[in-house]
Amino acid sequence: MASLVRHVTIDCADPFELAEFWAKVLDSSVSEDDNPGDPEALVESPGAALLFIRVPEGKAAKNRVHLDLQPQDRNRDEEVERLLALGATVVGDHRTSDGKGWVTMADIEGNEFCVERSAAERIATS
Fold first, then answer.
1. What is the per-residue DSSP string for 57-85?
2. Residues 32-43: what's their mean pLDDT?
């Protein structure tokens, strides 16, 4: 059997704070074993487990790997608004007039991710 991805690991300054942000994004929770000040924090969700690790240096350039989110119970634009309310920022808006495209956002530490169309939106615009 081939290897399986166990976690997607994200370097950060404050693992617990960033894990709390992503737990809200993914409607999940931070592992019971993790506490503020810990050097790492884990968020498990049906799509992927995210492991946040404290590193001394800050983000210096564009991510080499990023997450693509697909809303499950709302459309892309509603999800963008929800994520803005959680503290994310818009980095680039790639939505098109025909309803396609995505929005590039950044989490509270500047890590970029994309919000794509929901499955229902994909069906409606294909």
1. SPP-S--SS-EEE--SSS-HHHHHHHHHH
2. 97
- pTM comes to 0.91
Structure tokens at 118: 């929901």
Q: Give SS3 for 108.
A: coil
Q: What is the pLDDT of residue 106?
A: 96
The backbone torsions φ and ψ at residue 75, rounded to the nearest 5 degrees and listed phi first, read -85, 175
Count of positions (residues) in the chain: 126
Q: How wide is the angle at C-alpha 64 spanned by C-alphas 59 and 65, nearest 5°? A: 105
H-run or E-run covering 31:
none
Is the Cβ–Cβ distance between 108 and 89 less than 8 Å?
no
The secondary structure of 81-105, three-state, reads HHHHHHCCEEEEECCCCCCCCCEEE
Please tell me the distance from the alpha carbon of residue 78 to that of residue 70, in angstroms, as a whole number: 12
